[in-house]
Amino acid sequence: MFTDEAALEERLATPSPALVADLARLDGDLLVLGAGGKMGPSLCRLARRALDAAGRTDTLVHAVSRWSDPAAARELAADGVRTVAFDLMDPTADLTDLPDAANIVFMVGAKFGSAGAPSHAWAVNAALPDRVVRRWPAARIAAFSTGNVYPLVPVTSGGCTEEHPVGPVGEYAMSCLGRERIFGHAALTRGTRVALIRLNYAVDLRYGVLADLAVRVRTGGAVDVRTSAVNVVWQGYANEVTLRSLLHATAGEAFTLNLTGPETAPVRRIADWFGAEFDTAAVYEGEESGTALLSDASRCHALFGYPDVPLRTLVGWQADWLRRGLPLSGKPTKFQVRDGRF
Question: What's the whole-model pTM score?
Answer without folding.
Answer: 0.96
